[in-house]
Amino acid sequence: MIPSVLPTYARAPLHFAKGEGTWLIEEDGRRFLDLGSGIAVNVLGHANPGLVAALTEQAGKLWHVSNLYEIPQQQALADKLVAETFADTVFFTNSGTESCELAVKMARKYHYEAGAPERVEIITFHGAFHGRSSAAIAAVNTEKMVKGFGPLLPGFVQLPLGDIDAVKAAVTDKTAAIMIEPIQGEGGITVVPDAFLKDLRALCDATGTLLILDEVQCGVGRTGRLFAHEWAGITPDIMMVAKGIGGGFPLGAVLASEGAASGMTAGTHGSTYGGNPLGCAVGMAVLDVVAEPEFLAEVNRKAGLLRQKLEGLVASHPEVFCEVRGQGLMLGLKCVTANTEVVKAGYAAEVITVPAAENVIRLLPPLNITDDEIAEAIARLDAAATAVSAG
After folding, report:
1. Where do the domains of the chain lie?
2. What angle, rounded to 10 degrees, do the helices at 371-390 and 293-316 form?
3. Cβ–Cβ < 8 Å for 39, 354
């Protein structure tokens, strides 16, 4: 008999009843150190007092009116994002997948309105993950993502990551955009070199192609800058955001330059829930903290501390780990043994990590994790690695 919850997840046998900062408390009272943050979502930890206050205050006033009317909280958050980024305009969504859908539509509509309706192809890269909608799985086109789901949406070209010559050869008069994650999250915490991002920006400029950055997982302070592309000194035309922007409340956004968004006029896109007062009130509370230079400086300091300790952990357990990868507080441990076994051993050691491709476990702690919690994380990861070694 099929369960009442559709069985599309291989869930761990854990039932968390409460969260406090970097900690998750199981129903039986066990306290787990959360290095997953709900997959890079809870950037300020669980039950953060500032976010609880923002949500509670707004909840007592107004939850939902739809986008048929002006939403002051949405306007304020859009203004904040425009002020802090390359963007001239913002559309709010509920998830990263929805952001991907709009980014694809926006790029194609731009060229259509510019008199080049044939420019519909979007170049993506091996190892990418852009969501699970029909467009997002077509963009990636791996067997795991597309098998059994019928004909794929056309208009996507997949290339090896890092091969600029292959990209140059693939850009034609049908190319609308290049879409890339500055750091591949699901793909195994693979950092795209700054030089490659710079080359893509230059190629897009030379060919009239739009550059779409997927910062759903790596954005909102995760790398020590507000957005990861800032390290490369480039700007996109369109950027997908979600996860951390809501601090745990479902919220996403598409940020765009005025030119890239020029085709999106009244009626071309919409959302019932996107940009609702609750989500935008929480999003503003997140950005009020995370966008501050002092906060980002602390993310970088703590990232250096965590990485140094992780390097020591790898050296102590070469039979379990072989590499530290990533940037900021978006880090990964490449495993020698099966990463799923390391994640499972972590549960026994009461530490939460997240598996990814390339046999990597992801470490995505809240950005306000403390030094003492970093030390405790290493101790628990050490215990998990010792258990894996013992078989």
Report:
1. 16-34+294-390, 50-290
2. 20
3. yes
Decide if 16-34+294-390 and 50-290 have a common fold: no
Q: Indicate whether this model's pTM tops 0.90.
A: yes
State the Cα–Cα distance between residues 309 and 289, nearest whole angstrom: 26
Asked if 199 and 151 touch (Cβ cutoff 8 Å), the reply is: no
Alpha carbon distance 15, 282 (integer Å): 25
Which region holds residue 282: left if phi is over 0, alpha if psi is between -120 and 50, else beta?
Answer: alpha
How is domain 16-34+294-390 classified at the CATH fold level? Aspartate Aminotransferase, domain 1 (3.90.1150)
Question: Can you give the pLDDT at residue 391?
Answer: 80
Instruction: Give 10-residue mean pLDDT values along the chain (391 residues).
Output: 96 97 97 98 98 98 97 98 98 98 98 98 97 94 91 96 98 98 97 98 98 98 98 98 98 98 97 97 98 98 98 98 98 98 98 98 98 98 96 80
Domain 50-290 has CATH 3.10.20.30: no
